[in-house]
């Protein structure tokens, strides 16, 4: 006999009435009721990690036993009230997990409403035995909350303004760090450095709930939250302020027991997700996916599906678990390109770590199962709202040939080709340019910009970016827009000064290699760049893209090989060259049209269709 009856409307859900018990280990009993979310029913929602499914417990639903995980059973035992019923929504019970009629997919699309309409979201972190010292963790959290909540405005000011002393070159120098930490302790009266409570909190924040894909949405959408560990509980606002405090202290002081927290991407995204998020993350499913990549889930497709309730305009993506996850990822990319007209999402593709495990993901689709290891020059990596480059002006990407999400058909210009790859350790740009005379004109200058070789080299090695300000919360800026920095580069003729600037600009050389192209251009490409890779200017692209002709495929089909930087061609200059090729009388100084390419009119240059698989 089934405990489930069909749901009446598209907005209907099941709620359980968890019956009370005076015995902590007594069997679990509940009644199941149907409710319509449009009627604003009163209930709490449970957020938890399913855990091991091989040794299930049980709950009696209207007298009929239903297998549930031990994790859920423990949560319900701790949450039920003595002598009083508790109305809850818990996915494993309220959604028929064995349904084959599409109910599960339909209910998942409602989960955003389920958690946002709940009176309170109860976050189950596990039994107290899951933590070595839960008492120390909760007491330390309470101390931080009591101190910082009482002087919140002062703490917010410190959070933005406080920086380690400028004359401390190495934050690992203990004496200097202790001085900074002591000042913080005195000012805010928080637990001193070395307090065991910090380590206990760190271990609390490593519990599985903080790493899972679905828990982000469940917490993000909650009106009110309460974190529960066995018999202990903590207000949600308190938990998130404490976690954010530990991350900030790590970044500001360099203390290892703080930085351990701050270096965990999943926790950082949990915390940043609770704050007013940048528009790039709040309004963009792709921004959320970048924030949450690598989150743990049983089915990779849930990396996308678990965020649909947050993103405001994700209705074009349907929950369909019968699709391969690579296709689900691809559909998310295509929808973003279609709605935004931008190819910036391709900056999330980690071409440096592609291997056999990514065979089910097309080359142009980010594998959000993995935390990205590449550090190139796309604003996607730095989570910036403003464009850093505009190599194709104001043009918008145009998707061609609507097909399944296994191929990307877009329009652009085949601009150049990689003919040489320079060892990334090279700093002697004069030597490099002397070996490749095609890079220089008769006056010994780089033809596209008229600069001397070492200036071209330094600007290229850091992709023309000074991102030192980004570390200070300001953002990144183009070197080409800063006359003072360009002057420094111009007169940094000796190698030692060049090395100093190399360090100052936090160059991208750890994940890129300098390249030389067929037509005498100098650039930067991912580590796995190949000679013969084609440099393309794709409509809607902020940076040039590298495409690799597919082996054994028809001519005109490519594999995506990453973004690249081409010095002197990051702000529409490549399209100017393309237009001059088509019209010999064109005046290259006239470039106003680059800012009108988004308008529906014929392009003044020749484009072609590219198929990327």
Task: Walk me through what this model shows.
This protein is of the alpha+beta class and 613 residues long. It folds into four domains: 108 residues, no CATH class; 118 residues, no CATH class; 246 residues, no CATH class; 83 residues, no CATH class. The chain is 33% helix and 17% strand. It has a nine-stranded mixed beta sheet, with helices on both faces. A five-stranded mixed barrel has the order 10-15-16-17-19. Strands 11-12 form a two-stranded antiparallel sheet. A hairpin with a 4-residue loop joins β13 and β14. α10 packs across α11. The chain starts with 11 loop residues before the first strand and ends with a strand.
Using brief descriptors, characterize the structure shown.
613 residues, alpha+beta, 4 domains, nine-stranded mixed sheet, five-stranded mixed β-barrel, 23 helices, 19 strands, 33% helix, 17% strand, globular
Write the layout of secondary structure elements.
Layout: E1 12-18, E2 28-36, E3 44-47, E4 57-61, E5 64-68, H1 70-79, E6 86-89, H2 91-94, H3 103-108, H4 111-117, E7 121-126, H5 134-150, H6 152-161, H7 174-188, H8 196-204, H9 213-220, E8 225-229, E9 232-235, H10 236-253, H11 256-262, H12 265-274, H13 279-282, H14 285-292, H15 302-305, H16 325-340, H17 379-382, E10 408-421, H18 429-435, H19 453-461, E11 465-466, H20 468-471, E12 477-478, H21 483-490, H22 495-504, E13 512-517, E14 522-526, E15 534-538, E16 545-549, E17 557-563, E18 565-566, H23 573-582, E19 608-612
Parallel strand pairs: 2-4, 3-6, 3-7, 7-8, 17-19
Antiparallel strand pairs: 1-2, 1-6, 4-5, 8-9, 10-13, 10-15, 10-19, 11-12, 13-14, 14-18, 15-16, 16-17
Helix pairs in contact: 5-8, 5-10, 10-11, 10-12
């Amino acid at each position: 006999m089934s405990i489930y009856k069909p749901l009446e409307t598209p907005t209907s859900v099941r709620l359980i009435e968890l019956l009370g018990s005076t015995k902590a280990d007594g069997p679990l009993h509940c009644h199941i009721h149907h409710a319509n979310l449009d009627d604003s029913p009163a209930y709490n929602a449970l957020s938890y990690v399913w855990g091991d499914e091989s040794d299930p417990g049980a709950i009696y639903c209207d007298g009929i036993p239903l297998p549930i995980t031990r994790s859920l059973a423990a949560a319900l035992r701790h949450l039920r009230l003595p002598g009083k019923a508790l109305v809850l929504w818990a996915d494993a019970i309220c959604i028929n997990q064995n349904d084959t009629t599409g109910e599960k997919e339909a209910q998942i699309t409602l989960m955003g409403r389920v958690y946002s309409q709940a009176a309170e979201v109860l976050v189950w972190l596990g039994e107290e035995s899951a933590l070595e010292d839960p008492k120390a963790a909760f007491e330390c959290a309470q101390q931080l909350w009591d101190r910082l909540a009482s002087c919140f405005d002062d703490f917010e000011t410190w959070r933005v303004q406080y920086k380690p002393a400028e004359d401390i070159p190495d934050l690992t120098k203990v004496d200097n760090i202790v001085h900074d930490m002591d000042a913080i302790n005195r000012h805010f009266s928080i637990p001193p450095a070395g307090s065991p409570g910090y380590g206990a909190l760190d271990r609390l924040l490593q519990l599985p709930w903080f790493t899972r894909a679905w828990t982000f949405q469940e917490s993000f959408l909650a009106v009110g939250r309460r974190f529960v560990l066995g018999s202990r509980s903590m207000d949600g606002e308190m938990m998130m302020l404490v976690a954010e405090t530990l991350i900030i202290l790590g970044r500001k002081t360099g203390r290892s027991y703080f930085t351990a927290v701050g270096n965990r991407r999943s926790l950082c995204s949990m915390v940043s997700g609770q704050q007013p998020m940048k528009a790039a993350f709040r309004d963009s499913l792709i921004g959320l996916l970048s924030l949450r990549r690598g989150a743990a889930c049983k089915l990779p497709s849930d990396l996308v599906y678990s965020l649909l309730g947050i993103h405001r305009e994700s209705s074009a993506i349907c929950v369909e678990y019968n699709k391969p996850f690579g296709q689900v990822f691809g559909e998310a990319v295509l929808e973003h390109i279609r709605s935004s007209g931008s190819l910036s999402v391709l900056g999330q593709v980690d071409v440096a770590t592609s291997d056999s495990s990514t065979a089910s993901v097309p080359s142009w689709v980010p594998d959000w199962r993995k935390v990205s290891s590449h550090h190139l020059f796309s604003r996607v990596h730095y989570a910036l709202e403003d464009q850093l480059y505009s190599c194709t002006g104001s043009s918008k990407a145009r998707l061609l040939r609507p097909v399944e999400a296994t191929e990307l058909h877009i329009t652009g210009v085949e601009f150049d080709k990689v003919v040489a790859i320079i060892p990334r350790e090279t700093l002697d740009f004069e030597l490099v340019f002397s070996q490749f005379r095609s890079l220089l004109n008769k006056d010994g200058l780089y033809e596209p910009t008229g600069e001397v070789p070492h200036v071209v080299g330094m600007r290229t090695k850091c992709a023309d970016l000074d991102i030192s300000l980004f570390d200070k919360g300001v953002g990144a800026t183009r070197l080409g827009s800063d006359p003072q920095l360009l002057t420094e580069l111009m007169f940094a003729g000796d190698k030692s000064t060049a090395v100093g600037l190399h360090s100052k600009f936090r160059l991208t050389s750890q994940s890129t290699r300098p390249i030389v192209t067929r037509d005498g251009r100098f650039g930067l490409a991912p580590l796995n760049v190949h000679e013969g890779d084609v440099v393309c200017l794709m409509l809607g692209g902020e940076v040039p893209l590298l495409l690799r002709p597919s082996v054994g495929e028809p001519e005109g089909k490519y594999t995506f090989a990453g973004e690249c930087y081409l010095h002197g061609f990051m702000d529409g200059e490549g399209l100017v060259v393309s237009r001059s090729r088509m019209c010999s009388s064109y005046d290259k100084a006239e470039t106003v049209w680059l800012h009108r390419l988004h308008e529906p009119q014929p392009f003044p240059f020749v484009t072609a269709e590219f198929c990327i698989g």
